[in-house]
Design brief:
alpha+beta, 60s Ribosomal Protein L30, Chain: A, 215 residues
């Protein structure tokens, strides 16, 4: 069993490096990471469902199948990330890759007027661009989260964050994104990313985030 796991680990380590086509450097790609994770998971499943005498063979088969599936997810998210970065360049929206998930951070001052939960008309084109990509890459769920700073009443902040998240989610749905893929939630002031002691920090905390989760 130990030899099988060592072999699977070698598959993972061997597959987690690739050559950057621009610099020629060896680096870990997200596609390769997905393949590695899939290979390990597949190997464990293959061992679990095989008889004791066939566990080695089952692990290798499972690793191959799982590695291929993981690589496919990683490759799809790589393409989606690249498309989003191209579409959103210069809009003020940040694109952050986290494993096989992608997070879009939309500053509140760009998305909404002060105290309002209606999406600003100036931001329509940006959200329309996001919707175009989401409709092209359908193997993700979209979690929309609203956040506020610490100014004002907690209850009002919670309600505002929920309504802003819902406004963004509904906008995407009106653009043709399937409603079953979209969920919304508001978190008020609970998850700041900067200090609320400064005006700049409070502005950073007033945001809507879209998390694109692969499935």
């Amino acid at each position: 069993m130990n030899k099988v796991l060592i072999l699977c680990l070698a598959i993972v380590l061997g597959g987690c490096t690739s050559t950057d086509p621009y610099t020629g450097e060896q680096k870990t790609s997200n596609t390769a990471k997905g393949a590695g994770i899939g290979a390990i998971a597949g190997a464990l499943v293959g061992m679990a469902v095989s008889s004791k005498s066939d566990r080695g063979k089952g692990a290798l088969i499972g690793a191959a199948i799982g590695g291929g599936a993981g690589a496919g997810v990683g490759h799809s998210m790589d393409k989606q990330e690249a498309a989003l970065r191209t579409k959103l360049e210069g809009t003020g929206v940040s694109v952050i890759r986290e494993g096989n998930n992608i997070r879009l951070i939309m500053p509140g001052n760009l998305t909404f007027d002060v105290g309002s939960y209606d999406v600003r008309s100036q931001f329509y084109a940006t959200l329309e661009s996001v919707a175009i990509i989401l409709k092209e890459f359908t193997q993700t769920n979209i979690r929309v989260a609203g956040h506020t700073d610490s100014t004002g009443n907690d209850s009002d902040n919670q309600t505002l964050s929920e309504r802003r998240a819902n406004s963004v989610g509904q906008f995407l749905i009106t653009q043709g994104v399937m409603s079953g893929r979209v969920s919304t939630a508001g978190y008020g002031k609970r998850y700041p990313t900067a200090s609320n002691d400064t005006a700049a920090g409070r502005e950073t905390n007033r945001r809507v985030e879209l998390e694109l989760v692969s499935f």
